[in-house]
Amino acid sequence: MSFQSQGRAVQTGGVRGTVRSMLNRSNLASMVMALVLGVMVWMGATIQASPFAEGYLAEPIPVELVNRGEGLVIVGDLSQQVLVRVRTPESVWEDLSRNSFRAYIDLEGLDVGLHEVPVQVEPAGNLVRILEVSPSALTVRLDTRGEKTVSVRVSIYGNPPLGFGTGSIQVDPASVQVSGPQTQVDQVVQVSAGIYLSGEKDTFERSVTLSATNEVGSAVEGVDLGQKSARVTVPIEQEVGYRELSIKAKIEGNPAPGYWISSISANPSTVTVFGDPEAVNEIPGYLETYPVSVEGARDEVSEQVAVVFPEGVSALEDVATVQALIEISPVLGGQTVQLAPIVQGLGRGLEASFSPDTVEVILSGPLSDLEALESGDVLVTLDLSGYEPGTHFVTLEVEKPSSLGVQAVLPDQVEVVIKES
């Protein structure tokens, strides 16, 4: 082949390649066009096949804030939601929810100040048309972010009991970082912690919620505290010349034989006194009442009785008398008695034998009642009602005075043999 012929062959091959490439691109473009037309035809068929629905979504849509400038904060609460009215095919309407939309306001380019910003709502699909947004715009106040350290001030509400006072109050932490919109932070002059007293007579600690307050003591909203609570220690101290004392009821006489004093109490049980500091300090820690007699008592003794105060010492409260209560209880003891069971309820024409023929009953109760027991006061019965001939193990029953208790029956069952007589 000549050089000229080779040149024509190469040229012919290049043309064919170019044509083939053009044909491939044309086919690809045709396929894409066909796909787009198919989707459009399907969407049109879907829309024509399904009637339109129009109305408000059942759930409001939360509004996002986007593109807020660096160093800027929102003044106040902007957790807003909007209602959206849409138009869409009924087949699409059934699947719509608040998650099918995004609502936001764009703060790009906005600086410090008050702004009215339109709410933008974007649906997740192309078949939904937004008809109305309510509200269509939101008012936003922007401010620079500020922060400062403020001391914690403890306020005491109420007073300790008479004769007591509060010492130096401690709070941890003593100061708190406050941050938020600069205009709000500037209003904060202190962080407050409130403590309410309710009769405390000893030092106590409490965890107290903190709040930012302005110069007149009102709460400042919209700021963040680096510490939400503080530990407050309030010392409660007794003032000089005052003292809290127990009250002891004085007893004279003895209860009846077989009884003892099981409890002594006074109501109120304490009293705060005041007077000459030296005289108050010499009191041993309690005051006695005038004597209460329990001579021959078998039951509790309750009596209103006066308290004896040393010279120069008086009650801070109106406690001239107290209610003295003396509990009188029987002396408890134990006793064992040996008894033969008494058969009851045995059927006609039957006879019974049992083993053992005696049992021991251990009783407990007031010693005086145990010592007063007589023959026949305690009985052990063997109830054979409904038993047929044969060998049986039957539980024993004990009859006794109500003031006594049964600790044990040995044995608590006996072997019974029943025969026809």
What is the element layout, followed by pairings?
Elements: H1 3-49, E1 52-56, E2 61-66, E3 72-74, E4 81-89, H2 90-93, E5 101-106, E6 113-118, E7 120-123, E8 129-134, E9 137-157, E10 164-166, E11 170-172, E12 175-181, H3 182-187, E13 190-196, E14 204-209, E15 211-213, E16 224-225, E17 229-234, E18 236-238, E19 242-248, E20 251-252, E21 259-267, E22 270-275, H4 277-282, E23 286-288, E24 292-293, E25 301-306, E26 313-315, E27 321-330, E28 332-339, E29 342-344, E30 350-355, E31 359-366, H5 367-371, E32 379-383, E33 390-395, E34 397-399, E35 405-410, E36 413-420
Outline the structure in words.
The protein has 5 domains: 1-49; 54-135, RNA Polymerase Alpha Subunit, Chain A, domain 2, CATH 2.170.120.30; 147-238, YbbR-like domain (RNA Polymerase Alpha Subunit, Chain A, domain 2), CATH 2.170.120; 242-330, YbbR-like domain (RNA Polymerase Alpha Subunit, Chain A, domain 2, Beta Complex), CATH 2.170.120; 333-420, Beta Complex (RNA Polymerase Alpha Subunit, Chain A, domain 2), CATH 2.170.120.30. The strands form 10 sheets. Strands 3, 6, 9, 12, 13, 15 and 16 form a 7-stranded mixed beta sheet that branches. Strands 1, 2, 4, 5, 7 and 8 form a 6-stranded mixed beta sheet that branches. The model is unreliable at 1-19 (pLDDT under 50). By secondary structure, it is an alpha+beta fold. The radius of gyration is 49 Å and the shape is flat.
